[in-house]
């Protein structure tokens, strides 16, 4: 059969060619060089292709019911695949002669794909891909076909078709109108009841959405279609959609595009840490070695937190993004999924599937701040320590809480968690988890906590288990910020500012002005002597800024170092330094005798405030001087020349600052419209303010409701990571694991015996003769020691006799 379809000598003579046998690859190269000269051969091979298609279809119709299919005639399939690839390569050179070839090849794969062997299917699919790359076919013609052939069970063909669809759509422009038609094809296939086709359509949508080819902000219909797949009749489709919605925030994007890399580089350049030079100087030069270590560690923590905030502000991170953000009717979606969850136990749904539905419902409630009050009594049935995956259920309960829900609806669940987890007979892990969940729920709904319950929970801070005491202290730190009146007086801490008042139900903060615009107004109205500028050009070296008030001044004494390390978390708001002229006068009085009592009163009080933070500031200069003399303390001596130089430079900096301020109009003098320069300055001032707060380490910043609703609750952070005591077998395993990379122990003698070659330099030094001076010195030393020993031998006291 192959010979009848092959090229005959008569046909070659008719075209003017020699009768030598040519392969299809050689003929393909010649056609590309001279298309017009090989039209006869092309027509002949095209006819042979049609004859091969007819013969293949006849054999497929005859042997379709057999198990082997057309396996008995592999030559027919091989010839058909070779001619299909040959014609696909030369189609661009003969657009008129082969105009119907792409449609014929598409119909062949659509109608006879089940009867084809695996190799022929791959050849035909590759030929169609080649035709589409050569612009002979469009992707709309192949989209549905390539989605259908992925359901045949052929792994190689499925990977080929799937990767081709993904790569082709990714290469398309984001403004290409073909995206809508392709999305319509895939979504229509997802809505079918056929499980295999819907599964491939869902996988395609999820992959393109994950790679941000069809992102949710520009293609809402894709995100909505993935969310609606949670209600598919097939359980497998529903589970796949739920798993994608839950795992989307944990996906690591492997997109190596140039745009993403450039964005990362820009964000790294923008993020800069604003730390005062005075704080860096104190951490490295002032105080004892132990206090300097603590200050340096504190500085590193502050820099890390500031970098993290700046990075999150500059980068376009998708950590809070979810396809659930694009739901048109989130309330209806949550209610439908909750109704399916309630009937899932009766229909035989697995506990893992129900857990995923619980987490998706909770995430939807938290993102859109929905009211699904029947969801909390449903969770109350699972709020017990012995339930499987209880931390994930508790994380879902925390996720579903927001400030828009009345406390009465969540209070039964809250009491259930407290009663089941936090009691004396519970395990330490359960108590720590319960306290952490209570803290997170109270962070979102402040009205849940009562004074009696809080005082009972606070007593766990004395527990010997580190996880329990840490959870209790975190609860104390939270209520110091949101409602310190519920705490007893000793747990409220030092009053560092106005006492926080709890918000009422439904109370929200409404911005009446540009956020943080008051920082710009303060910078416009501040005086040069205040020294609030931290820039290198406008910093006043002789003055104190706000950050020096946040960090206690360290004068080098041990008492101050201990006070700094013990009370480093509190803000020292009582420290008030004098201006430049007064500091210069104070330095002169330290070197001169007390001649003017009127001047020494204020200066002695300043010195006492700087050196002794705990002493009273209302005493007179003579009393303070007598106290210092009685206690034997010395006054701090400051270099007069250095202080004078700093005052000179500060005056010049103050003058430059005043000139720059006069050139620029203030905020009030302008028309109230902020420019780009104003917004940039507000951003810088906000960064400096955050740096001061981070260095002060006063409590923690309570996030607002929008930040809490967007952030996903991690169940691992609710767990108590208690390190139990290791057994002897576990310790031996750790010891043996540490010895794996280490070589076997050998003595030095064994190593020397196995050594080959000459002696080492150390051995050669032992054989060298000592210098003459060294020999004489050694001999003289031995003579002196011998003489000393002989002189002491006779007069040495040997003790008294017992009978005397």
From TrEMBL:
GO terms for biological process: protein transport; ribosomal large subunit biogenesis; ribosomal large subunit export from nucleus. Residues 587-738 form the SDA1 middle domain. Residues 284-325, 521-635, 728-804 are annotated as: Disordered. Residues 86-463 form the SDA1 N-terminal domain. Residues 728-744 have a biased composition (Basic and acidic residues). Keywords: Nucleus, Protein transport, Ribosome biogenesis, Transport. Residues 529-616 have a biased composition (Acidic residues). Its main location: nucleus. It is found in: Nucleus, Nucleolus. Residues 757-802 form the SDA1 C-terminal domain. GO terms for cellular component: nucleolus. It holds the Pfam family SDA1_HEAT. Residues 745-755, 778-789 have a biased composition (Basic residues). Residues 313-325 have a biased composition (Polar residues). InterPro entries: ARM-type_fold, Sda1, SDA1_C, SDA1_MD, SDA1_N. Belongs to the SDA1 family. Required for 60S pre-ribosomal subunits export to the cytoplasm. This is Protein SDA1. It comes from Cardamine amara subsp. amara.
């Amino acid at each position: 059969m192959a010979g009848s379809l092959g090229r005959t000598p008569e046909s070659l003579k008719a075209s003017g060619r020699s009768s030598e046998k040519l392969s299809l690859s050689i003929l393909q190269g010649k056609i590309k060089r001279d298309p017009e000269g090989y039209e006869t051969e092309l027509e002949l091979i095209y006819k042979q292709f049609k004859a091969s298609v007819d013969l293949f279809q006849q054999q497929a119709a005859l042997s379709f019911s057999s198990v082997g299919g057309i396996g008995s005639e592999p030559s027919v399939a091989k010839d058909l695949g070779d001619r299909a690839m040959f014609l696909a390569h030369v189609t661009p050179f003969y657009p008129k002669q082969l105009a119907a070839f792409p449609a014929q090849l598409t119909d062949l794969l659509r109608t006879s794909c089940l009867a084809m062997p695996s190799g022929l299917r791959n050849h035909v699919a590759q030929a169609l891909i080649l035709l589409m790359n050569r612009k002979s076919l469009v992707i709309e013609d192949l989209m549905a076909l390539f989605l259908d052939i992925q359901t045949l069970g052929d792994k190689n063909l499925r990977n080929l078709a799937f990767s081709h669809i993904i790569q082709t759509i990714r290469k398309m422009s984001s403004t290409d109108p073909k995206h809508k038609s392709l999305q319509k094809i895939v979504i229509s296939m997802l809505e079918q009841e056929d499980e295999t086709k819907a599964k491939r359509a869902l996988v395609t949508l999820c992959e393109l959405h994950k790679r941000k080819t069809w992102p949710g902000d520009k293609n809402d219909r894709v995100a909505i279609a993935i969310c609606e797949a949670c209600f598919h009749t097939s359980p497998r489709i529903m589970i796949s959609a739920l798993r994608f919605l839950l795992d989307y925030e944990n996906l690591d994007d492997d997109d190596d595009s140039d745009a993403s890399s450039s964005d990362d580089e820009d964000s790294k350049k923008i993020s800069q840490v604003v730390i005062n030079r005075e704080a860096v100087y104190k951490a490295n030069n002032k105080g004892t070695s132990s206090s300097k270590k603590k200050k340096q560690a504190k500085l590193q923590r502050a820099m890390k937190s500031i970098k993290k905030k700046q990075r999150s502000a500059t980068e376009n991170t998708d950590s809070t993004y979810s396809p659930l953000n694009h739901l048109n009717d989130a309330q209806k979606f949550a209610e439908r999924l909750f109704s399916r969850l309630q009937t899932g136990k009766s229909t035989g749904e697995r506990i893992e599937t129900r857990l995923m539905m619980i987490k998706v419902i909770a995430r939807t409630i938290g993102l859109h701040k929905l009211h699904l009050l029947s969801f909390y009594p449903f969770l109350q049935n699972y709020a017990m320590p012995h339930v499987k995956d209880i931390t994930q259920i508790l994380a879902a309960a925390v996720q579903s809480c927001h400030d828009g829900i009345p406390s009465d609806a969540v209070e039964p669940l809250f009491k259930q968690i407290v009663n089941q987890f936090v009691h004396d007979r519970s395990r330490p892990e359960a108590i720590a988890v319960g306290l952490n969940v209570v803290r997170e729920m109270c962070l979102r709904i402040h009205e849940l906590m009562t004074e009696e319950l809080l005082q009972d929970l606070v007593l766990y801070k004395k527990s010997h288990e580190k996880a329990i005491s840490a959870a209790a202290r975190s609860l104390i730190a939270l209520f110091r910020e949101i409602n310190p009146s519920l705490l007893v007086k000793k747990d409220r801490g030092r009053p560092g500012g106005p006492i926080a008042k709890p918000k009422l139900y439904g109370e929200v903060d409404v911005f009446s002005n540009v956020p943080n615009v008051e920082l710009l107004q303060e910078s416009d109205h501040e005086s040069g002597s205040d020294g609030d500028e931290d820039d290198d050009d406008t910093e006043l070296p002789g003055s104190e800024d706000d950050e020096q008030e946040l960090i206690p001044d360290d004068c080098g004494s041990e008492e101050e170092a201990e006070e700094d390390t013990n009370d480093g978390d509190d803000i020292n708001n009582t420290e008030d330094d004098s201006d430049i002229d007064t500091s210069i006068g104070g330095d002169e009085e330290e070197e001169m005798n007390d001649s003017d009592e009127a001047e020494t009163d204020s200066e002695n009080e300043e010195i006492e405030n700087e050196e002794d933070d705990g002493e009273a500031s209302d005493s007179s200069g003579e009393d303070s001087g007598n106290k210092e003399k009685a206690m034997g303390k010395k006054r701090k001596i400051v270099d007069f020349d250095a202080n004078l130089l700093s005052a000179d430079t500060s005056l010049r900096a103050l003058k430059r600052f005043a000139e720059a301020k006069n050139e620029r109009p203030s905020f009030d003098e302008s028309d109230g419209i902020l420019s780009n320069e104003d917004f940039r300055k507000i951003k810088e001032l906000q960064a400096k303010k955050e740096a001061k707060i981070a260095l002060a380490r006063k409590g923690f910043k309570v996030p607002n409701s929008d930040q809490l609703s967007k952030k996903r609750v991690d169940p691992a952070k609710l767990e108590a990571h208690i390190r139990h005591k290791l057994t002897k077998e576990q310790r031996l395993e750790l010891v043996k694991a540490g010895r794996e990379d280490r070589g076997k122990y050998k003595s030095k003698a064994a190593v020397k015996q196995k050594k080959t070659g000459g002696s080492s330099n150390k051995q050669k030094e032992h054989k060298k003769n000592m210098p003459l001076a060294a020999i004489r010195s050694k001999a003289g030393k031995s003579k002196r020691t011998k003489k000393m020993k002989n002189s002491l031998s006779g007069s040495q006291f040997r003790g008294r006799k017992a009978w005397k």
